[in-house]
Every structure is written in C-alpha cells, then in structure tokens.
Amino acid sequence: QVQLVEAGGGLVQAGGSLRLSCAASGRTFSSYAMGWFRHAPGKEREFVAAISRSGGATSYADSVKGRFTISRDNAKNTVFLQMINLKPEDTAVYFCAADRSSTVAGIYRYDYQYLYWGQGTQVTVSS
C-alpha cells in the first residue's frame, strides 16, 4: 500500500508559479506510475500530467502543456509538478495518484487507472 501526501499549494497571482510535491511512503516507489489530477468547483476531476515509473515518459493535458512540468525523484520517493504562468482557470484542488506499472514507460491518463490517491492541495490563482 502507498500513502501520498501533497504539498506546495497556495494563493498566487496570475502569471505566477508554484511547485507542488507529492511524497510517497514505501520502498517500491520506482514501481509506480504517477499522475496529477485537479478538481475545480462545479467541474469534473480532470487529468493534468502523468509520468512513467522511470521518469522517462511524460504526458500532459492540452490545457497545461508548455506551462506545467512533471518530474520525479525516485531516490526521495517524490513526484513534482512545476507550474508556471498560472491562470485563474488553474484554480483547483490538485491530487497526486499512483499505481503499479508493469512497464517502464507506462503512462496513465485516466483516474480509474490509479489505485492510490493523496488528500489534495489547494491552488488558487487570482486575476
């Protein structure tokens, strides 16, 4: 079982930056594909970014491509989401998710593909 704890959310002005982190428990972090999702009020939870267990493959939602970067440090059991040029529409609770991946380059873009979820961290972007 994996426990995930997100950090780094906060209030930022439009155009600003934040770096989210997600720390995972356990000794097999490198076996897990990781993803970031977000949930804004009145909207469905949506995919943001994903990274393979090796870190060699990534995928992004079109809405964040070029502004967000997902990365991971397997030695520190942590995945990151660097967000720049933030927009008010990025305001949401951001969740990280994990699931075992049978392939080194596996990428999961759908929430049903993830078994483990963090509690979320609020990101608010003011205009």
The helix/strand series, from N terminus to C terminus, equals EEEEEEEEEEE
- Residue share in helix: under 10%
Low-confidence stretches: none
- Distance linking N and C termini: 40 Å
Mean pLDDT: 96
Sum this structure up briefly.
The chain has 127 residues and is mostly beta strands.
Layout of SSEs?
Blueprint (H helix, E strand, L loop, with lengths): L3 E4 L2 E4 L4 E7 L7 E8 L6 E6 L6 E3 L7 E6 L4 E6 L8 E9 L15 E2 L3 E6 L1
Parallel strand pairs: 2-11
Antiparallel strand pairs: 1-3, 3-8, 4-5, 4-9, 5-6, 7-8, 9-10, 9-11
Q: What can you see in these coordinates?
A:
The protein is mostly beta strands and 127 residues long. 0% of the residues lie in helices and 48% in strands. Strand 7 and strand 8 (78-83) form a beta hairpin.
Overview features:
single chain; 127 residues; mainly beta; 7-stranded mixed β-sheet; 4-stranded antiparallel β-sheet; globular
